[in-house]
Each structure stands twice: as C-alpha cells, then as structure tokens.
C-alpha cells in the first residue's frame, strides 16, 4: 500500500483512507479535516456529499446516503468494460439493489447482499475500475449501515449527483482525454471508435500521437512494473488507420447559428477551437501570419518527426471540410487589430498566436545582426522553409547548438540532415537533467551529435561581425535544488573556446510584443502573456478569449489543444446564452489537482510481466540523409498486445449537490465524422 497525502475541509460523518469520522451527535464546528475546496465546490449550490475510492464524506445531515451510492454505482455499471463477470454483473446488481432500498422496496437482509457483492467485486475484478469502485460502499455498510434509509420526497428533489470518471493518466494529460477508453478500442480492434474518443476532444490525433510529450505515460501505474503503456504509439496507430485508409472526412454541422468568431492563430489551440465551434454550428474565420496552418507545430517540428501532410490533414483540411475559412499572411498588430475585428461584425475573438520569438543568451559580444548566429526558433523556421518550400538555406562546417530541450534536439538533428560537418550540443547541466524527451536525446546520439554536458557559454568570438567561436566554461554539480536537479557552479580556470561555423541559441521562446495594442482593453502580464480567467479563458475584454502559448508561454502542443477546446466551450456559452460558466468536470479536475488525490496512485500488486512494444524506426545511418519520418507504425498485433497492458485504472468521483450542476457540452458526434 502507498501513503496518501493529508487532505483538508469539514464533514459530519464518513470514512477517508480507512479512518472513520462520526460527528453526527457533536456540536457544530467540530468536524475533522477532509478535502480542501469541497464545501464551496459550486457557487450557490451547497455540497451535500463526496464519494471516491478512498472513502466518502457527508456534509449535510439531510443527505440520502443510499441515493448517493446508487448514483455512484450506476456510473460504475456504465463504465464497466464487461470483460469480467464480477464487475459487469456486480455493479449492475448493486445499482439495482440500492435503487430498491431507496424506493423502500427491498427485502430484509438486502444490505448484507450488497456488502457481499461489494466484497466480491473488489476482490475479484480484473481491472482498476472494478477493484476500486465498491470500496467506499463496503466501508459505508460496515460503519454507517443505519444511514441506508429509503429516500424521502425532499431528498428526491434536492439531491443531485455528478459522477466523474477519470484515471491517473487522464488527469496527467492537460487535455484530459479518456486514455483507457481509446486503448479499449484498440484492444477490441475498433480503431474508428478509438479515434472517435480522441476526436471528441481535438482533431490532431495523429499529430499528437507523434510529438506529444506524454504526461500520461509518466503517470501510468504500469511504470512501477516493466514500464508505462505506450499510450502515444497507440493513439498514433488508431489515427493512422483512418488516414491511411482515407477515412478522415467531416461534414459541416446540420445545426447552424448566426454567429461568427475570428480566431487569431492556426496553431493547435486555434485549430482545436475552430474545430469544436464548427462542430457546434458556429461560423469561424481563422487568421494566421504564416502561409499554412499548424503554427509552431508546422514550422518548429521537423518533418522527420511530424510529416507536414499529416499535420495538414488534421488542421487545414478538417477545418475547411467543416466549413471554416483561412486567411493567411495576416499579422495581428500589423494588418488588423482586435478592435477592427469586432468592428467588422465578429461576435467573439479567440487570440491563439504563439510564442514565436527566440531567446538569446545575454552573453559577451552578443548583439543583433551577427552573422553565423541564430536562435533555435529562427533556425527551425529556415529549416522548414527549405524542406517544405525550397527556400535556400545552407548549413555547413561545425555547428554548435546550446540548449537542453526538444527544440535543441530538433536543431541538432536537422543540422545533420542539412549537411553539417559536425554538430555539437552544449548543455549547462547533466544529461539526466535535460528537459528533452529521452528518446530524442538517444536518437541524436545515435545519429552522431556530440554532447557537451556541464558546459555553458560565456561569450562569442566575433570577427568582422561574424561569429567564429563560442567561449565556454565547464560547470560542476553542487547539491540538488527543490526540483531534484543538480545545482551547478563554474569550475575555476576552465574556460575554453570552440571554433564553429554556426551557433544556435536554442534556450527558449517568448511571446512577441506589440501584437495586442494598448487601449484595446486586454491585460498583459510582465512576460507579455495575455491575462485570462484560468477556467473560462476570458480576457479582461468582453467577447475576447485567449489560449495557447500567448497565455501560457511556450508550453506543449497538448496544453494548446486543451486550451483550444476549453475556449470553444466558453465562446459557445457566451454566444448562445450571454454568459460563461465553469463545467462540473473542470471543477472536479481542479479539486483532484488541489488535493493531489491521484498523485500517489501506485500498484498494490504487480501485474503479470508484459514487455512494452518497441516503435520501429529508420536506421540512423540512413535517416540522417533526409527528412523522412524516423518513427514507423507498429503492427496490428503489436498494437493489440500493447493495449492489453493497460490496467484500466479508472476511478470514480461523485459530488452530491443541492441543485443540478450545469452541463452542456459542445455538439460533437464522433460516430459520424469518420467516412463509411
């Protein structure tokens, strides 16, 4: 068993992590700590109870415990995959017996029957959902059986349950995509179904299946066994089946609203927002400074990792099929302003421009206009223009790239493919501290990149406005910081120079200034990012929303996908009802994050050993000669075997409130978007 963190709030009675709390007969003000932020979960809608796999808590003496657990078990029965009898039959039977108790129609001894069913489901189910869904019910029957009473007329009217299904991998994903569900689809050979689960969130399934940084795999409980499930490769497999078989076709929504939205930026956030709005019948125009859709995913990720035809199919092609329009080479702040867009009749604006400006070192002899010196962002843009548009860009001689993230890895691997004689990667910390994905580091090493760890630049050697060498100093470790990384300091008298023909500063990106004009009523922070409501993505100007890098700074593609989807929900609320509200899913996600309810999830019993699938790839000696995609598609059999490694670690969380929680998802029918 693993330890759980402390949690804080108040309750009247319940059980949490095996500890019984009973203050039903105590004076007011004495309840014990339980969950932070639960009592005020929804404004003007009192929380009456909370149920999870770790226990339950009741906050209102008039709450019907039997009805709360009936709703909880009804969701468990709905989520059961049906592959094992205890979970498939047991959850339905418990739901039905609890309904009989609530209706005062139960036979004597029914609570004993429910307890026995709960015990069997917990002990014999094959997946995490079945093993966890009846634990708190069993505890409640053991310690608070007297609260399992028939439902009163008042309770039937003033008690409503919202049950949220999630898993450690789901909560780790910024987009909160239902990972076990699409893995179930792959395991069952239902690839369109698996893809439909992803398309219900965002359109870039094959793109994300290639370049996502895989927060989900870091949270996978199988990590404690022989390694996490290959979630990203399964997402890619499901998406590629549709693309390869030409089945990714969309039709405009049959419902059309007389509303228009301007979206600024055709990157992942803007494309996802447009996609969800168009599915909901709202007209969309997309403006972008580049010549094609994709944003930094297009210009900043080389083709050997993300083929541009895949990106185009999941961005521009889908949006046009759904009825959206694109206006390219249009720069906000130069060709138009937010004021002008609203003045032209757009009912709302979504700002989704990226962090497209590179960061410089800030070292000796560094100044604008130097020859043979470039930022990582600008370098990758030139690589993109050469590979995709035949714009001349020559790389030769000895190249030095400074940085430790994925952008730096893209730069060194691209420089090799463009003909550099040698490519050096300079990083000021240790290899284990590199933020780049481990697979990218290994791939670069296999391709011949020379790594210099614990080394940092201190100055540029310049002759006739041209960089000739990089001045560097060696570093040494000295203890670890609060994040577990090594603290570093310069090694005395270790300075040296490295002659080179090109220096690439791949140390970060930032949002460009002067995009949003002063006086437009849109607040910016000190990093020039747009200030928004974290839940609704509303800016300080009514009708203007923002998301992606221009809000978060240079984060990941999947963060941008999430922001695009959430912005679309808020924009649709604003356009169709005049108001924006926070959905209950978002409230529960915030609650789980604040109390770290899934952070300590661990394996109690190791599963049978199953090796993780290996992604086939092109040979290193051959792939450095071109920009062909390196990672290849796994086989159907490998996809099935990898999907079978999923432990289906679903958890259910139920919040019982006095009134219904508003829940109106965007129109999306993932069963019909795929061509027959």
Question: In a few lines, what is going on in this structure?
Answer:
The protein is α/β, with parallel strands linked by helices.
Topology (elements, then pairings):
Layout: E1 13-16, E2 19-22, E3 47-52, E4 55-58, H1 65-79, H2 85-102, H3 110-124, H4 128-132, H5 135-143, H6 153-157, E5 160-166, H7 168-172, H8 179-187, H9 191-199, H10 205-211, H11 215-219, H12 231-244, E6 260-264, H13 268-279, E7 283-287, H14 296-299, H15 308-313, H16 316-321, E8 325-327, H17 338-343, E9 348-351, E10 357-358, E11 373-375, H18 376-389, E12 398-402, H19 406-417, E13 422-426, H20 438-447, E14 450-452, E15 455-463, E16 466-480, E17 486-490, E18 496-499, E19 502-505, E20 509-510, E21 544-546, H21 549-552, H22 557-577, H23 584-595, H24 620-623, H25 636-643, E22 651-657
The overall pLDDT, averaged over residues, is: 92
What's the N-to-C terminus distance?
48 Å
Which spans have pLDDT < 50 for at least 5 consecutive residues? 1-6, 664-676
Number of strands: 22
Strand content: 15-25%
Strand order of the largest sheet: 2-1-4-3-22-5
CATH architecture of the largest domain: 3-Layer(bba) Sandwich
Shape: globular
CATH topology-level fold name of the largest domain: FAD/NAD(P)-binding domain
Report on the biggest sheet: 6 strands, antiparallel
- Content-based structural category: alpha/beta
> Helical percent range?
25-40%
List the total number of helices.
25
CATH superfamily of the largest domain: FAD/NAD(P)-binding domain
Rg (C-alpha, Å): 27 Å
* Number of domain units: 3
**CATH class bucket of the largest domain:** Alpha Beta
Protein name: Formate dehydrogenase beta subunit
Domain NADH-ubiquinone oxidoreductase 51kDa subunit iron-sulphur binding: 66-111
GO molecular function, one term: NADH dehydrogenase (ubiquinone) activity
